[in-house]
From TrEMBL:
Keywords: Cytoplasm, Disulfide bond, Electron transport, Redox-active center, Transport. Belongs to the glutaredoxin family. Residues 4-63 form the Glutaredoxin domain. The keyword Electron transport applies. One of its GO terms (cellular component) is cytoplasm. PANTHER family: GLUTAREDOXIN 2 (PTHR45694), GLUTAREDOXIN-1-RELATED (PTHR45694:SF18). It comes from Insolitispirillum peregrinum. The keyword Kinase does not apply. It comes from the Bacteria. One of its GO terms (biological process) is cellular response to oxidative stress. This is Glutaredoxin. SUPFAM superfamilies: Thioredoxin-like. NCBIfam families: GRX_bact.
Amino acid sequence: MAHIEMFMTPTCPYCQRARALLDRKGVTYDIINVAAEPQLRDVMEKRARRHTVPQIFIDDRHIGGCDDLYALDAAGGLDPLLQG
């Protein structure tokens, strides 16, 4: 199974949509709440080279944000990555 990390904030609607898709896929993932731990936003920005949330990583591969995750799923590329 893949290791999934999502940098997010609790009030972000895009974060909630991304979580909903991952929940529908039945996978577990680590939530990194950059609102609760602001120093982790710097970590996110260095890894993703983006400053918006969510930022999603699967096995250290940067997927991007919510729209990127949904596009990957629509293209049939998400499920193979989730298998690890």
